[in-house]
Write a structure and sequence with these properties.
A two-stranded antiparallel sheet has the order 1-2. It is globular and about 65 Å long. It has two domains: 15-78, Arc Repressor Mutant, subunit A (Orthogonal Bundle), CATH 1.10.10.10; 91-242, Up-down Bundle (Four Helix Bundle (Hemerythrin (Met), subunit A)), CATH 1.20.120. Helix content is 65%, strand content 3%. It has nine helices and two strands; from the N terminus they run H-H-H-E-E-H-H-H-H-H-H. With 243 residues, the protein is mainly alpha-helical. The model is unreliable at 1-7 (pLDDT under 50). 27% of the residues are buried.
């Protein structure tokens, strides 16, 4: 791999931060993916014109940002979804998770019907194959009475990938947290409805019917929101009774 960088001297920015920035630039310029191993610490130090300690600290920064990952016994590789972290907005620290879940449902209502519409209009045959499989796995979990939240998330991720929009997958952590939180708070009370909704969304996307996909996704989220509102009302009644 050819040296890619000039000497990194920038006023007011630490050397490790500058190293991290230049390593990120390398990833972009060289079109590196999760299949690619990062050059060795020694090679990077020579390319950047800094010490190995600086490179080491820069790599740590990128690991913390989920740009790089260290594979034990193999070396440092590009992360599968560089820069994407499970809870980028710190939702887990909100004290009222029910209020958060309702607010997330409002955001989902604005975003996901459009995503479903774009998926129906743009999905390839391979996309649809992946979406059918994602739907099937969720159904298996629900029928077997297993926690379906992880695979439920993957179903919605598969829909997002059908859009072939570069930005949509970056919004997935919001959807991911919302779905996982909803399943947790409702204790999977809408499992039967989830089966029905997922199948209808799948049919609409596979049928390339954008309007139907958007409306079905909207209805799916509205059901979720109504369930949350019902649970919040139950909690409020319980507090009133105790008072």
């Amino acid at each position: 791999m050819e040296p890619a960088f000039e000497n990194i001297q920038a006023k007011g920015v630490t050397l490790p931060e500058q190293a991290a920035e230049q390593i990120s630039k390398l990833i972009v310029e060289q079109h590196l993916t999760c299949e690619d191993k990062l050059p060795s610490e020694f090679e990077l130090a020579e390319m950047l014109g800094v010490g190995r300690g600086t490179v080491r600290e820069g790599v740590k920064l990128l690991v913390a940002r989920n740009v790089l990952e260290i594979r034990r016994g193999k070396g440092t590789y590009i992360a599968p979804n560089p820069g994407e972290i499970p809870d980028p907005l710190g939702f887990v620290y909100y004290p009222d998770q029910f209020r958060l879940a309702l607010d997330l449902a409002e955001i989902r209502l604005q975003m996901e019907p459009w995503v479903a519409r774009m998926a129906a209009e743009r999905a390839t045959a391979e996309d649809l194959k992946n979406l059918r499989e994602a739907c099937r796995v969720v159904e298996q979990d629900i029928v077997a009475e297993r926690d379906h939240s992880k695979n439920d998330v993957l179903f919605h991720v598969a829909i997002a990938e059908c859009t072939h929009n570069l930005v949509v997958p970056k919004l997935i952590p919001i959807i991911t947290y919302a779905i996982t939180l909803f399943v947790s708070l409702t204790e999977s009370r809408l499992k039967a409805q989830t089966l029905v909704d997922h199948r209808e969304i799948l049919d609409a996307v596979c049928g390339q019917d954008g309007d139907r996909a958007a409306k079905t996704m909207e209805r799916h989220i509205q059901y979720n929101k109504a369930m949350l509102e019902e649970l919040v009302a139950e909690l409020e009644r319980g507090k009133t009774a105790e008072g």
